[in-house]
Amino acid sequence: MKLNNNVTEFILVGLTQDPIKKKIVFVTFLLLYLGTLLGNFLIITTIKTSRALGSPMYFFLFHLSLSDTFLSTSIAPRVIADALLKKTTISFSECMIQVFSSHFFGCLEIFILILMAVDRYVAICKPLHYMTIMSHRVCGGLMALAWVGACVHSSTQIFLTLSLPFCGPNVIDHYFCDLQPLLKLACADTYVTNLLLVSNSGAICTVSFVVLMVSYVVILHHLRNHSAEGRRKALSTCISHIIVVILFFGPCIFIYTRPATTFPMDKMIAVFYTIGAPFLNPLIYTLRNAEVKNAMRMLWRKKLISDDKR
């Protein structure tokens, strides 16, 4: 596709232009990003090495941690580096790659959260058929569909963005390349394009959130028939999922379900789902999940034993 634009690079305004605040942004984002990498690496390593975490729920959690890592990596390193610079620019190609990658891994996370809700529904509402319905083959197929679906979504977003001409203003009032700020810079009427983009991203966010909330209402309703111990364990898992869903979907729905308008608070709200959620997810899933914590302890003991033998 021929890029219909005269702009070769964009200037990112960032979160702030104040030198002191930029240092605070640098330290904060660096710590959050390192925490995200460490937490998700621990979950990925633990699930891969632990036989006790072989159920479908942890298969999906493994992919959620991968998605969190890539989502954060598509945005955080650039923000950290830009906080040290006076003038921050990003090439047109890099900007489009960032739009694609952030939407790809953001959409993938949405689909994985839906699959995790399906897994909990089958485990709680149809326990006798759980291993039959959620077999390794089925889980692998569902995850493949999630990756393909995320690719279709992000490809649609980037196709619509590249169809717009960028011929003049190149200052993006954001800390990363996102669709709404980019639409404001286009040298054409973006009403139809914005409608398509919002109906794409907004529909995915809103419909997925409603589906997830309904599924958890059904799950909580079925928990009434379980024993006290089974109810406590299932509630612990479901509550973790619900917290993650609210933290991720709340900001996404606010950003992507409205017309092409931007607000000063958009940048701070975007921090929640681009940086905050990937950082908090490992904490939520490990602090509230006894099986993951036990598996991590066993992994740590094996590491200490192997080090002692050396």
UniProtKB/TrEMBL annotation:
It is a multi-pass membrane protein. GO terms for cellular component: plasma membrane. It comes from the Eukaryota. Pfam families: 7tm_4 (PF13853). Keywords: Cell membrane, G-protein coupled receptor, Membrane, Olfaction, Receptor, Sensory transduction, Transducer, Transmembrane, Transmembrane helix. Residues 39-285 form the G-protein coupled receptors family 1 profile domain. One of its GO terms (molecular function) is G protein-coupled receptor activity. The chain crosses the membrane at residues 24-45, 57-76, 96-118, 138-160, 201-223, 235-256, 268-287. Its main location: membrane. It is found in: Cell membrane. InterPro entries: GPCR_Rhodpsn (IPR000276), GPCR_Rhodpsn_7TM (IPR017452), Olfact_rcpt (IPR000725), Olfactory_Receptors (IPR050427). Putative odorant or sperm cell receptor. Belongs to the G-protein coupled receptor 1 family. This is Olfactory receptor.
